[in-house]
Amino acid sequence: MPNTTRSQFIFGFVIVAAIIMGATIGLLSNDVYAQAEQQTIVVQAGGAGLGAAEALIFAPQSVSVHRGDRVVWAVNGFHNIRFSEEGHIPLALIPGVNEVEIPQINPAVGLPNIDNGAVYSGGMANSGLPAGVPGGAPDAGGTFSLIIDLEPGTYTYLCDVHPGMVGQITVVADDEPVASTAEVAIQAKGEIDAALALGNEAWQAQQEAAFGVNTANDEGVANVQAGSTDTGRTTVNRFFGSTTVIEVGQTVTWTVPAGSPDPHTVTWPPLRGQDVAPIPQDAGPPILAFGPGFTPNIPENGEVAQGTEFNSALLFPGQSFSLTFTEPGAYPYVCNIHPGMEGTVVVLPPGA
Ligand SMILES: [Cu+2]
Fold first, then answer.
1. Which one of 169, 194, 219 terminates a domain?
2. Interval 93-102: pLDDT, tens
3. How far away, in angstroms, is 62 Cα from ligand 1 center?
């Protein structure tokens, strides 16, 4: 065979091979993404209600998609999105537990292990935490999305910050119908409105009670409820009774009710934006150590006089924090993680 003919033959062979390969790839990708068009649906991660009411749900809680569809989570609040079969894991790691030496945000919650917009084909996948967590989800307060490349079946994901905030994606066969983008949006709104109903009611009740004050009981203790309870999947980020009036020597106890869906702090002065103090590492991501905002600062003997600083750090549902006030005056305080969640302790001279 003359050289030219031979190179033409090889060239031709390569072309034919490329066509066959292309067709095969086409068939394969058709097999993977048989749906004619990739659909994008939006899941709301949390939703704002009246005032300080906030729904801690994924809406729609359950969506059906075809393999190859894109799911976009609109992140409305401090949430992560994590697929895992092991369920909820702790947001905070405490020294002495599992060889942790520094109090920190659990890196498995705070840091992403999959790119925003990536193809998700199973296993552990975490968006990371938004806003305020260095190295966390890249578009804080924005969106996180995945292309769902999974066998038909139901897959569960959750937010580790808010136990009980769980969502499901069901992948159905290509010839089964699924709700459209618009239908999913309408369903999401309905679910958020329903979840917010109790929270909005609690918010309105709190507004009406705002001028009421907490006072001390026979034991000299004034109890203040931090955050809402019995409001389902909605939280109302307020101190119930924002004013507490006691006498010198009496105690205020703040309690996050066991039925509250969100943690809070009792802090003075405000330490906003100081929740995380990253410690760079030679290799790998930084340790997300707690900053002053998440570090307890308990005054000696729990006693507060004018100018004393205090910080309960995160109080999870069921936890309490107490301070005894030793000087007359007005003592403002805030929840460090919920803007607008503020209160005042008015301390009167004894026998006033
Ligand atoms: Cu709070």
1. 194
2. 988 877 888 9
3. 28
